[in-house]
Amino acid sequence: MAALGVTAYLWWPAGEVEAGLFRPDDAQTVRLGESLYRDHCAACHGADLEGETLDWQIRDEDGYLPGPPHDGTGHTWHHPDQLLFDITKYGVAEAANLPDYATRMPAFEDVLDDDEIIAILSFIKSHWPEHIRQYQDDINRRFEERSQGAQ
Fold this sequence. Notes:
Cytochrome Bc1 Complex, Chain D, domain 2
């Protein structure tokens, strides 16, 4: 699924639509996600979601961005669940329709199943401060409203 820029979502009014794929309040899902995160994500995104380096927005000498933080200091929460899922499953280039995007992050389509990806992203979201979770939930609502309007 080609993703749209998050900026477009921010202009859509929030509604009362149930939104989001992730289950950050489901203890079993979060436990599974934590284990999978440790195995597949922590090496680049940090054991405590802190990211690879403090300068995660600056490309390295090879032209790659370091693994960004997934805590409240990063940008993960600026995106709807569906885009985060697609980036994890298919890779940034395909999910964001950026065929020449240089990244070291692999696609996990052949490594993790959909429920495992959702568990990892649920674990990540479970660590965001409440105001960030609410903000990201609003992004999900806007995304879903826009997606339903396009049908």
